[in-house]
Design goal:
Shape: globular
Structural class: alpha+beta
CATH topology of the largest domain: Trna Endonuclease, Chain: A, domain 1
CATH class of the largest domain: Alpha Beta
Number of helices: 5
Number of strands: 10
Strand order of the largest sheet: 3-4-2-1-5
CATH architecture of the largest domain: 3-Layer(aba) Sandwich
Distance between the termini: 53 Å
Strand content: 25-35%
Number of domains: 2
Radius of gyration: 16 Å
Largest sheet: 5 strands, mixed
Order of helices and strands: EEHEEHEHHEEEHEE
Helix content: 25-40%
Length: 172
């Protein structure tokens, strides 16, 4: 696996062949200025599953632990988000960031091609110890409904297992 570089909150894949393979076969990342950018969750998943080498800005190879520590400093709730990401990818779903929708991820069905097909859910990752204000819950449902998606909550327990709850909008 080719080397990659952690820059701010992305991991950049510079090798064109590796970038094309990751994007075309696994729907990982997105192309920006001709380079593949991976989210922190995608990068850790590929590091653990495919041996992706990640380097810091000084050119030093990052261990898994060093990468996780850096990611936790960069992104609030990284480990919760990664736990849900890993679980969904292991089940075959494709995940892309959903920041513009106020969520953690857009979830595409197994075998779907993001960009050609629409996501099924906007996924919000959380811990069993977190609470959510009713206004936030209502807002997430309104946004999902307005873009014709359902809300999926991925709740991580103390053991690291994820339980999912699908919320749909209903009019009475």
């Amino acid at each position: 696996m080719e080397k990659t570089l952690l820059i701010k909150d992305k991991v950049i894949v510079f090798d064109d062949k590796t970038a094309s393979r990751l994007y075309n076969k696994g729907h990982f990342g997105s192309f920006q200025d001709g380079k593949l950018e991976l989210s922190l969750e995608e990068a850790l998943y590929l590091k653990s599953k495919k041996g992706l080498e990640i380097y810091d800005k000084k050119g030093k190879a990052m261990s898994t632990k060093a990468f996780i520590n850096a990611a936790e400093k960069i992104q609030n709730r990284f480990w919760i988000r990664y736990s849900v990401f890993r679980d969904m990818r292991t089940m075959g779903y494709i995940l892309k960031t959903a920041f513009k929708y106020g969520g953690d991820f857009r979830v595409y069905d197994k075998g779907s091609v993001p960009g050609k097909e629409h996501a099924l859910w906007i996924l919000y990752a959380g811990s069993e110890h977190e609470s959510m204000p009713l206004l936030s819950f209502s807002a997430m449902n309104r946004v999902a409904h307005s873009v014709k998606k359902s809300v999926l909550l991925g709740i991580v327990d103390e053991e690291g297992s994820v339980t999912y709850y699908e919320i749909n909008w209903r009019k009475f």
